[in-house]
TrEMBL record:
It holds the Pfam family F-box-like. It comes from the Eukaryota. It comes from Laccaria amethystina LaAM-08-1. This is F-box domain-containing protein. Gene3D superfamilies: 1.20.1280.50, Ribonuclease Inhibitor. InterPro entries: F-box-like_dom_sf, F-box_dom, LRR_dom_sf.
Length: 516
């Protein structure tokens, strides 16, 4: 048809394809490679490191192999197609055996660090270690059978993870020093949760990703031991340490410095003293992502170092996060701030500070004052943010804590000059709405316009508007009216999983902006 374009009317479709005379459908003439590519398009997620895919994708692959003999031959001859739909959590023993036969010894993906596998047939899975590309299991104990399995050579292994989920007496909780008989040359990622490992193990020397999270009951390595280990992992790009640094005994010996020239993603969750000691002894380049959670916060030299550490690196995120999304979670004795260009729940920079138990010398001063230097570091990011999610939890009877948190909420709103969408989660509106009411009744028009001048959308999630007898919705209605009067109306309001009263209907009828 394309060749005849412009040379008169096109031929009929049947004549053009000659389908009626050949008796062979066009798709049956496709090369096997193209047909296989079509099959693979049904796997919307990458096969690598995933052990499962959605049920509809599994059904599609199985159905494609049952259309005709040709299609079945193509599907059965491509082993990776079958390894990608294995589900060791849900599949029966018989179907698992069938898929293993079709996989033809291709590398397998059993579990992933974010969703460790709990297979029905653990013995079968343990026998497959030498064939695995990723091997991440959730187990109740490090049994002798399991420990023997991870002593087998694993020439294909790239990702190894153990999630130890035990109850009562833990038993063995430490992995052996020598893993996979010293034969795992492709191992690049290790993810450990609630289990220990030998800090002197040579198995981690080629890693690019190491994530370790332990229960509080375990005694983790000291800062010194961590620094020595990291000096032997020069290619590391991603590092997560959560509640895994033990407090060391006082010593006059200086700590070594760990060189991590390729690190780009760091996540650290430890008490203030351990955070400061660790961060002050690592040499790292500018980071793409940083997550820092520290508790037992106090105004001391360790706190001052954390401020300097963030200040030296904040320019990178200030430049990169423009018109992005921010997240602020406020509690009576903790603060969570994050910023991202894409996803506020997976931010490029986030900090979580907890100062529970801290008592100031002057009890009349709000407790939050001493962390103001940390808050100010986020000022440029919040200034440019177009979307902000706020969640507020107040479970303290101390009125000074409530006043401090309200002051912080006002600070965030005042400096969010470019904010277009405000997401309020939980009971945060109980804190913010009275503040908005104060600005509405203020006689200074400039003050009114200085609060969220660019705001166009409000999004409420899991808010109980009946808890204050409908006062919150009355304030919201007054705020919407006020925005119309000053010429910057709110264009959209969304309620998700909210407990609403009759005031909701008056907002819908009066402004017509509501979406559920």
């Amino acid at each position: 048809m394309l060749r005849d374009f412009g040379k008169g009317p096109p031929k009929r479709f049947g004549a053009c394809t000659n389908y009626s005379t050949s008796g062979i459908s066009p798709i049956s003439k496709l090369p096997d490679e193209i047909l296989l590519s079509i099959f693979l398009m049904n796997l919307t997620r990458p096969c690598r490191y995933f052990s499962t895919c959605p049920e509809w994708q599994k059904r599609t692959i199985r159905s494609a192999s049952q259309v005709c003999r040709h299609w079945r031959a193509v599907a059965l001859n491509y082993a990776t197609l079958w390894t990608s739909i294995m589900d060791f959590d849900k599949d029966s023993f018989e179907w698992t055996q069938e898929l293993l036969g079709r996989s033809k010894q291709m590398p397998l993906n059993i579990g992933r660090h974010v969703a460790a596998c709990r297979p029905k047939n653990l013995d079968l899975v343990l026998d497959l270690v030498p064939q695995c590309r990723s091997f991440c299991l959730e187990v109740e104990a490090l049994t002798e059978r399991f420990l023997n399995a991870i002593q087998k050579p694993a020439p294909h292994l790239e990702v190894f993870g153990v999630h130890l989920k035990w109850e009562g007496e833990a038993g063995v909780t430490t992995l052996p020093k020598i893993l996979f008989n010293g034969d795992a040359p492709k191992l690049r990622e290790v993810h450990l949760k609630w289990c220990r490992f030998d800090i002197t193990t040579p198995a981690f020397s080629q890693l690019t990703c190491l994530e370790v999270s332990w229960a509080h009951g375990f005694v983790g390595p000291t800062v010194l031991e961590w620094l020595n280990l990291l000096n032997n992992i020069p290619r590391l790009k991603k590092l997560l340490i959560s509640e895994s640094i033990s407090k060391a005994l006082p010593s006059t010996e200086p700590l070594p410095r760990a060189q991590l020239p390729h690190l780009s993603d760091l996540s650290l969750s430890e008490p203030l003293a351990e955070c400061s000691s660790f961060l002050s002894h690592i040499d790292i380049p500018p980071l793409d992502k940083l997550s820092l959670t520290t508790h037992k916060l106090r105004p001391n030299p360790d706190f001052n170092f954390i401020v300097r550490f963030l200040e030296e690196r904040m320019d990178r995120w200030t430049r990169n996060i423009v018109n992005g999304e921010c997240l602020a979670i406020l509690e009576c004795h903790s603060l969570w701030l994050g910023g991202s260009n894409d996803n506020p729940f997976d931010p490029d920079i986030c900090v979580n500070f907890d100062w529970e138990g801290f008592v100031q010398d002057q009890p009349t001063d709000p407790k939050i004052h001493f962390i103001q230097p940390l808050i100010l570091l986020f000022l440029p990011i919040f200034r440019s943010a177009r979307s902000l999610r706020m969640h507020y939890l107040l479970n303290d009877d101390d009125p000074r804590n409530s006043r401090s948190t309200k002051n912080l909420a006002v600070w965030i709103l005042r400096f969010s000059r470019n904010l277009v969408t405000l997401h309020l989660m939980g009971d945060v509106y109980l804190t913010l709405f009275p503040l908005l009411e104060q600005f509405i009744v203020s006689s200074t028009r400039d003050v009114r316009k200085s609060i969220l001048p660019s705001l166009r959308a409000l999004d409420f999630s899991a808010c109980d508007f009946k808890i204050d007898d409908g006062r919150g919705l009355k304030i919201l209605r007054a705020f919407l009216k006020f925005r119309v009067e000053v010429g910057v109306p709110i264009e959209t309001i969304v309620f998700k999983m909210c407990n609403l009263d009759e005031g909701y209907q008056s907002i819908r009828e009066g402004f017509g902006l509501v979406r559920n």
